[in-house]
Amino acid sequence: MLSVVSAKQAALLLAALGVVSGLLSTFAPINPGGKLEIALFSSSGATLYPAFYFGLALCIGVALWESRSPLRLAVVFVAVMIAWIAAFEAAAEIDRYLERYRMTNPPNADGVAVQFPYIMAVAGFIAGIIGSAVTAVSVAIVSRDFRSYASVSRTILIGALAGILLQIDVNWSPGPLLLFVTWQAAVAASVAYGIVAPKRRRLAEPFLKPGAALLA
């Protein structure tokens, strides 16, 4: 598969899977007899299915271009679960903290209460950093090609910026559609590019430097 796919094509393919994952995360909740929550780990009631769908998407990419080892795939899948819980908890706690601050501070002299018009943007930004950082580290653990400052930092930056979209989605009735689709597609694309690009460069080196093998 690697020999016929460029890094950009891999990024587009995994981004497409990220779009599908984001759509499923919004419109296809997993409800086996009730709301599926990670009650043992999430005080805010984080639902499991967005991490489930995105974890599958990333595992497909890892299986295609890195390894089909069940252990490595499990590392990525479980890490995505942890990343989602941590990000959800962070966003919820920031929202609660700022709301408590607003409620405990009296209005100013003009009678205007304390307002935080971009609470969800801040919460989404920080949650995006946490979610993408845990995801990137897990991929770096299973893929030596992804294990670079450029790949990890790019993925975290993309996750942070995409997280700001929570501000737009927070009051939208379908749910965080724009956030899920954009975040999952962009992070997935960064992961795919970070895995495939170094591999292709390494495979091309003997052809770019025909004398390298003789000198080794």
Distance between the termini: 28 Å
DSSP helix fraction: over 70%
Number of domains: 1
User: Would you tell me the overall average pLDDT?
Assistant: 82
Fold and architecture overview:
- The protein is mainly α and 216 residues long.
- It has one domain.
- 70% of the residues lie in helices and 0% in strands.
- It has eight helices and no strands.
- Helix 1 (7-27) packs antiparallel against helix 2 and helix 1 (7-27) runs antiparallel to helix 7.
- The protein is elongated and about 65 Å long.
- 39% of the residues are buried.
- Mean pLDDT is 82; it is low at 32-42 and 212-216.
Gist of the model:
The chain is an all-alpha fold and 216 residues long. 70% of the residues lie in helices and 0% in strands. It has 8 helices and no strands.
Descriptive key words:
elongated; disordered C terminus; 70% helix; single chain; mainly alpha; 216 residues
Topology (SSEs and partners):
Elements: H1 7-27, H2 49-65, H3 70-104, H4 119-142, H5 149-163, H6 166-169, H7 177-208, H8 212-215
